[in-house]
Amino acid sequence: MYSEIKNRFATSDVEVKRDDLAKVVVDRHRLFDLISMLGREYGYITLSAITCTDWIEDDHFVLSYMLVREDRKHNMMIQSMIGRDEPHIESLVGSFKQAQIMERDLHEMYGIDFVGNDNLVELSLENWIYTPPLRREFDTLEFVNNHLTFRDGRDDNMDVKKEMKRLRALKKAQKEAAKKAKEESSDVKQ
């Protein structure tokens, strides 16, 4: 199978990761031909995930499609790269209905347009007009400081770093107190 993939899809980037997992990197224009061939000829019939990695330094996204064989004994990760400027790629909804929700999520979080998916509506971010939040140029702290109001005077409005430091110190003090009490009780028994 691997030599056939290398020959038919002009890629040398085929890697067996484990007995039950292989990875193939293929040109974006051949991606869906490969996915179709794997389903038709090798029984990879389930799409279990579509993920995205932002390689901002190289100005592209890496999309990873995870396919599972019918007998569930082997997984195939197929990766392809798309540009960050106007990210778009064909949708897999026609082949895998579960792709719709995965593509909606990636559309919302990275701004990727999945051509052919007519349901790329907001999933969890209501009325979002800013940079997609999982792109690496999105500055979470800046966004919070500029767009969210802090709830001054409320007991639940705490500096997380200070609170974690306080809780660790409290836990350490409790351990030391328990240790000291145990030592004192063993001294009394002797």
Stretches with pLDDT under 50, minimum 5 residues: none
Q: Tell me the CATH superfamily of the domain at 2-123.
A: NADH:ubiquinone oxidoreductase Nqo5 subunit
CATH class of the domain at 2-123: Alpha Beta
Which percent bin holds the helix content? 25-40%
N- and C-termini, Cα separation: 74 Å
Number of strands: 7
Give helix and strand order, one letter per element, not per position: HEEHEEEEHEHH
Structural class: alpha/beta
**Radius of gyration over alpha carbons?**
25 Å
Biggest sheet details: 5 strands, mixed
Q: What proportion of the residues form beta strands (DSSP E)? A: 15-25%
Textual characterization of the structure:
The chain is α/β, with parallel strands linked by helices and 190 residues long. The chain has a domain at 2-123: Beta Polymerase, domain 2 (2-Layer Sandwich). 36% of the residues lie in helices and 25% in strands. It has five helices and seven strands. The chain has helices at 2-8, 31-42, 99-110, 140-147, 160-189; strands at residues 14-18, 21-25, 44-55, 60-69, 75-83, 88-90, 113-115. The strands form two sheets. It has a five-stranded mixed sheet with strand order 1-2-5-4-3. A two-stranded parallel ribbon has the order 6-7. Strand 3 (44-55) and strand 4 (60-69) form a beta hairpin. The longest helix has 30 residues, at 160-189. The model has no long low-confidence stretch (mean pLDDT 90).
